[in-house]
Records
---
Amino acid sequence: MWVRVLGSAAGGGFPQWNCGCPQCRAVRTGARPCVARSQSSIAVSADRKQWFLFNASPDIQSQIEAFPDLHPDEGRVVRLQAVLLTDAELDHTLGLLLMREGRGLEVHATESVHETLTTGTGVLRTLEAYCPVKWQPVVPGVEVPLDDGSHGLSYRAFDVPTDKSMRFPGAATHGRVVGYRLTDAGSGRSLVYLPCVQRLTPEVLEELADCSGLLIDGTCWRDDEMPRLGLAGKTSREMGHVPIAGAGGSLELLASLPIDRKVYIHINNTNPVLLEDSPERRILDRHGIEVAADGLELEI
């Protein structure tokens, strides 16, 4: 199984257009070692020919152009087979509208996410006015083949509990956020994609058991990161993201897990791990946990 990180930043990207935090200033001026990042999304393939997109960020056009494996063949034969969504957040779904020129789009999403994108944000309702959209309902706990079984690539979604405030009331609370466990039947190895998680509950940690690769929520270093900088009133957890550091943070829970590749993704512009010379980055290095950058590839 091949995995390409198309985008590694949280909503707004890095730098964020309206932010002058130390990290955004550093990447603009080159004052410290760091690289710009687009909004998070990955592509997965069993053969490097057919690809499956996980979340469609507003940066999807430039992300596809930066990855030749996703360039269309002659006659607009595209290599993207389907889009799988973890939630209905705009930074994970607005890219769907930029794919409206296609002959059709297959979208895997839970009933809750589908309802929000149809009657809430209207993203799918708008997209359907331009091209056919085939909705594949995602049911947590059910193993689903991704490539008709020809390459043995499958996924199993799992529910990610959240009490983050709903911007569009009315959608079902169950299935608002999911993670995906992708398995290559040939090798028996699995990857877990979990860009948004509020709490690493025992049930969520169980989903990580025996996986070979993990791409996990690295939005904020501290729970009070945004309020400390005067940029927002909500903590990381209140925004739906477990912080990396501190009691109950993801670092203390993930450090001892026997996973070959542990990678933080969906990194907010305020997170000091974006600075390659920061003390926080050195802490992750000591624990063998990577920080994703656009273009990172994993072979699982």
---
Amino acid sequence: MVHKQPSHTMKCILVLVFVGQTVAYTIPNVHFEYPTARGFRASIPDTPGLQMFAFHARLNKPFERFEEGDYAEDVTEPDDNGLWLYSTNKPALPNGTIIYYWVYVQFAGQGYWLTDKKHTVLRSRATVAPKTTTTTTTTTTVPPCPHTVTTFNGGKTTCAGKLLFEDTFDERSFAPKWQHEIRIPLDTDSAEFVSYQNLPENSYIAAGRLVIVPTLVNMNADYNDERIRTGELVLKGCTSPTDNPYECQRQAARSTILPPVASAKLNTKNHFRFRYGRVEIRAKLPKGDWIFPQLFLQPYENYYGYADYASGQMWIAHILSNRVLVAGDGKKIGGYRLRGGVLITNTDPVRSDFLRSNVKEEHFGDQFHVYGLVWTPEQILLTVDGFQYGTLRPNFRQHAQQHNLTQANLWNAESPLAPFDREFYISVGVGVGGVKDFPDQSQTGPSKSPKPWNNTSPKAEFFFYQNRNTWYRTWTEPELTIDYVRVYAL
């Protein structure tokens, strides 16, 4: 890549000291511009060795620590003008607005920070943050290591702001970061109408992206209607977390059929888990009736128990991927509504008490978005494209006890965020159907076709399969495509 030289107004304060393999670096002052009536641009000049420019800002409110902020992005390459550039056109910025910000830069494999920064908006001209509002970053051959509450992989410590996990899917192999779940989901989850398997048509890496796509099993010549209704499925290498045989094999008979859809679900359980941190996943979500993406954090050891989400589950991003879906009460709940948050039970209505929503005018499967979750000892924040749309700051134990959830008695009384005070791992996949996420009496599509199964019916999966000629036609973009996954220490 050819890097253009920055203009003379962009002064790069850079010191390169070669002592063996050690390189020292000072982050330049961040340059602010206001090219349009709304928003701003913040940039630093490129120089050989720069690998990432992470910019985090909010308006008129200082940061307490390394929070996500309302305007944030991890920039992974310079633009054509030789700038590592963050740009937004969202906020209105009258003169006098204070932009509080912090910056993390990766240079030559090391991390550097600008912290406790602020810039005052003067829209009459492009302005570099004045020296009176910033502090000097010390140049050193050893990067600073600010304290962090984040731990990973069994309690290992790290430094604030450090990139702990990253996969940009440049390698075609899933190993060693990811393992496939191989199982039939039970009603401990959503009892979705799939089997999760390690099949090349359901999960693969292409063009530097992870693709997970559900497929109809009767597209395979070995799965005709007779086998689906009377045959047997045995999953070799089953990964049931409780060694439950019903997750590893199924005999079809009467109202029970074999899972009509095959899909994939992958996780980092054997490679990476963490407690407290910031997660970012850039992904394009699936589109099609009765599909939903799974971008989750799941408990590593199920310390508080396995049944009924006793150890919790965190949703980084979740949609009901129908292009049009209307609940029985008339509420639009299709792919234009993003949800994130946590589950502390599988029992309605408490199941959705801690899910937050963000509604857009376009389907979340139309383009890529960056889905984020910030997890601290005091709160959980939810973001999309740097915009914070949800905050959870409750006492989960108290809430659960008020609703007679027995698992709450096991949760750490000294931790208001329990059960979310243990290590969790990343889980990504695509589910279909099930008996929890799609409400009864909902209608889909322009013709308002009724949902073909009831969640309480013992033949729910069968009725779903019977309706396949209707819903399968909508599966024109059923894949979840993930560009990158990153986890940072707080």
